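Why predict the complex rather than its parts? Because the way molecules touch one another can change local conformation, and only a joint prediction can capture that. The input here totals 1264 residues.
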Amino acid sequence: MKKIDLVEKEKQREDTGFGTTATSTSARLVNNEGNFNVKKIGQSFEARVNLYHKLITMSWAKFAVISLGFYLVVNLTFGILYYLIGIENLMGVNKDHGLSDFWEAFFFSSQTLTTVGYGRVSPVGYVTNIIASVEAFLGLLSFSILTGLLYGRFSKPIPRIRYSEKAIIAPYLDINGLMIRLANEKSNQLINVEASVIFSRNETIDGVVKRKYYGLDLERSKVKFFAMSWTLVHPITEKSVLFGETMESLQASDAEMLVTVEGTNDTFADPIYSRRSFLYNEIEFGKKFLPMTVPQEDYYLLDLNKLSDTENAKLN
Amino acid sequence: MKKIDLVEKEKQREDTGFGTTATSTSARLVNNEGNFNVKKIGQSFEARVNLYHKLITMSWAKFAVISLGFYLVVNLTFGILYYLIGIENLMGVNKDHGLSDFWEAFFFSSQTLTTVGYGRVSPVGYVTNIIASVEAFLGLLSFSILTGLLYGRFSKPIPRIRYSEKAIIAPYLDINGLMIRLANEKSNQLINVEASVIFSRNETIDGVVKRKYYGLDLERSKVKFFAMSWTLVHPITEKSVLFGETMESLQASDAEMLVTVEGTNDTFADPIYSRRSFLYNEIEFGKKFLPMTVPQEDYYLLDLNKLSDTENAKLN
Amino acid sequence: MKKIDLVEKEKQREDTGFGTTATSTSARLVNNEGNFNVKKIGQSFEARVNLYHKLITMSWAKFAVISLGFYLVVNLTFGILYYLIGIENLMGVNKDHGLSDFWEAFFFSSQTLTTVGYGRVSPVGYVTNIIASVEAFLGLLSFSILTGLLYGRFSKPIPRIRYSEKAIIAPYLDINGLMIRLANEKSNQLINVEASVIFSRNETIDGVVKRKYYGLDLERSKVKFFAMSWTLVHPITEKSVLFGETMESLQASDAEMLVTVEGTNDTFADPIYSRRSFLYNEIEFGKKFLPMTVPQEDYYLLDLNKLSDTENAKLN
Amino acid sequence: MKKIDLVEKEKQREDTGFGTTATSTSARLVNNEGNFNVKKIGQSFEARVNLYHKLITMSWAKFAVISLGFYLVVNLTFGILYYLIGIENLMGVNKDHGLSDFWEAFFFSSQTLTTVGYGRVSPVGYVTNIIASVEAFLGLLSFSILTGLLYGRFSKPIPRIRYSEKAIIAPYLDINGLMIRLANEKSNQLINVEASVIFSRNETIDGVVKRKYYGLDLERSKVKFFAMSWTLVHPITEKSVLFGETMESLQASDAEMLVTVEGTNDTFADPIYSRRSFLYNEIEFGKKFLPMTVPQEDYYLLDLNKLSDTENAKLN
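Output of the joint prediction:
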């Protein structure tokens, strides 16, 4: 029955997750840090801002500036409030202490917000007391977010999977293979690590250029431990979509490879994810990787500096 | 052997999780935000209240009111206690400060609860000291719950998966298909995303109206990345439960579709869940989705406003 | 080859996790809350105490007593220290305040530990300052554990899966089945819920009484949603280990069923686990469950009080 | 087709995760605590230091020293700052209190950092106020990291899976088997526990000594509950890589076994991981394990001291 046949064939298409996106552009979908070159319009304000995500992923410098800025702005705001209500409601303010009235109010605010509360200056009168009471409450709440963010940033597991600078086409058994070498830069263990490679290129179908995506079969796509290095190998058999490709054909079709690695950090049982993209000009033909391990008496020595070291090799 | 046959057949029934619920009502089981229209009687007090769940999921406005209310009530309670024990046990209370005795006690309580402790007012005498000591202790503990909740709410991952307003019946290959389009409104990545569609309708069996549930086969039910949009496709083959359905028959049988999406947010490795229901009047025949991507030089542009854009299409 | 045969057969044994435990006792392995009746000797001190586990799982009353006790003991300890060093090193101590020297030291300690620090009493001299400085530091650290525990206890997901009081043997299709009914007492959703039933009984093999464990096949062992009730059904086919069992034979062999339920709470994406054991006297023959749902106009009403309601039914 | 054959054969190689590491050294890859004997050169500073990982996994003694050291250093730094700015900007400093100016500044710093803020000493003047304000802010932030670490360490689930001291070769059915016995030392439950055994030895291939890795098939590799003890059994069939091995041949080839156990702690739904390595001299031939359970009236008694108890047994 023809109908079912077509449906079955469609189902067997490579399951890359890009397959349903028809596009005629040749822009790189993934940059080589593994981020997607996608911009969105029509996002809601909340989705666009995505405050928590931004605060966790921004640089430490930016986070420090924002934290201090927040502290400053809150203290300025409350300082102005106390000042406007009347400095006479802050007992202990005294020109002899070398501070102007406003700055006494400002520093009183900071002592309240952080709950230090030295008490040299203290609130009297209803309004000032109410505001100080609210400020201490807000201080505790806002510091809970700030400190939560700080610890979240500090404890966030950052996978440090390093990839060889180039993907190479090397001799493999009696054929050739696409190889990419990985190493875990950190000293902690990664376990149950799984890798996948997606290959994409422009193809001209009925005169229309379309971007096509293919999953590449790996000789080994999962390892129980990732203690040393790991060389991903896609054997270029006659069935492989890479069969017959040359450096020139890869360039002509804007070829790109997307490597994804998933695993578990066994210190904290956190899942980790890592991505890396190789553009056609990051693929080399006729190379093979040199060993990274340096034999030692009592232990194994992995030299990360050799991760991308290759030598020429005659292809089959 | 007939017995085993029946058992085997029962086992092969669609595994929707509703299959064992016999019901004669035609109420919608799922509202279109994906919440179940189920009320329960006989819950224990603890299960009905489910305090933590409520505090995490209520609106920010409600949470703010409850937090401030809690702060107010605790301070009132302790303020009254200090007042009843005798204001003479609070050293530093002074009518010149423009506060009545009770409010001095109230603000002393707030300074103790937040651990600001300016010290202008401080406790003397056994009873007041004991109570102040307990209040500071309880303050630290209760603020730990309040701040934990606040940060929990702030950091809770809210999936922002948007669904097309309508499910459509569109031409698909040489047959037709049910299609629903999804997009991730946020800028962060979702990975390992899995979708399922459950179809339910009333069926008259032996003269009794029963609600029946069917899982719909999808052309693709899992994608590795959810970077762009994703159109779920259920091919309406002759085997499909939707084969032969019309707008009228769907309405007559109170038909409803439940879409569920599960995946992982790769910034925090948090699992995310999303649900959406489409009632018969949210299903359109003879449409097809228009592209959402706008080709650009250097990147991909996804226009979320076009998520529900369709045009007419002749069905096969 | 006979050797391989025996090995293969052994591999196909029911995988219950108890299978390798040879035992001649007839004690119940699991109590009906799902806890194992296992005691261990030879545990290390740390494993036996398992402080964190105890502090999270103990009752709220016990936790409150321990917290307050800890607060009291620490303040007593530091109070005694300050007193022994010399009350003259606490400035502001004054007999007029109605407190003896020791209690001034005690309350100073509590003001330091909670970081309230009113400052009416403050440390002078080296030793007292050093100790106060250490106490404030320890106070912050120990309160971090206390508040962490408190929030951990508060936010710990407690599955409230209710089980029917009895497991029943009911007519099922053209044979009979073992049935156990479950309901989620809470209002939040459980998804991807999986259940299993393990049956155990004493068997006399070569004159030795051994406890044997069998996994029971379920008509359905996984549901996508657990919105309503769920009746676990083990069809008693001729292959079933329950085939031919009677109330008397179950009692004679000290039969026991262990139900385990695993799933995900979709508010927080937390996994949940629940267990329940049914002893032979909690199994009834010739019953069937009555409906729990009460049809309503606009929603589904699940009456948890009817979870265990059965009526007599003639067995096949 | 020969090419595909070789590729297929390579794919069927044992998936141990070490298979791709060619090495000629005979160093033990895993020590018997399950840590890998791997050192890395070329790590980035951040990867090498891996601060969070170190702070969570170091001993409690070391953590205490580092915490106190941090507290001391920060107070010294700020104390010196306040002293250099001029002690006259700290109101309330008074030689009568038995502290030199510097130590007054030091203890003022500690009162600010912990937010105790007694207020006997309080800042006046702009510079001192600014610094005190920053110190209180930094204090709150740094204590958030310290207390987060402390609670993280305290609540970190430490699996206490104990392994028998030796792996034994025991009679098993009508052949022999490699057996290793495990027990959960803690009183909490482990569920869904999975085990694997990897065997490695030196093999001389074409005159080159290579380390080879093999996964060993287990009679049972997963149990639903780990309530009692669990004896891992690898049946030494004719297909087994251990078939024909003797104590001498294991020693000659530097043989080593790596046991890994994964599961879920059901109190907190935390995944747990455990590893243990057995070197050739920790493997005994012709033994069998003695029972660990002591029959009791009402419960099961597991004697952990008997975990490694064996008696001689004639091998098949």
